[in-house]
Amino acid sequence: MNTKYNNNPVLFALLLSAFSALGPFTVDMYLSSLPQMTDYYGTSASMIQASLTASLLGLGIGQLVTGPLSDVHGRRNPLLISMILYSIASIACAFSPNIGIFIVLRFIQGFVASAGLVISRAIVRDRYRGVEMVQFMSVLTMISNIAPLISPTAGSAVTTFTSWIGVFIFLGILGLLLTGLTAWKINESLPVERRVPSSFSEVLNNYSSLLRNRSFMGYALVNGILFSGVFAYVAGTPFIYQNIYGISPQLFSILFALNGLGIIIGSQFVKRLAGRWEEDRIIQSGLLLACIAATVALIFVLSHGPFIALFSSIFLFAVSIGIIGPVSFTLAMESQGHIAGSAAAILGSLQFALGALSSPIVGVAGETSAVPFGITIFMTSILAVIFYRNLVSRPDSAKKSNSETFR
Question: Full-prediction pTM beyond 0.90?
Answer without folding.
Answer: no
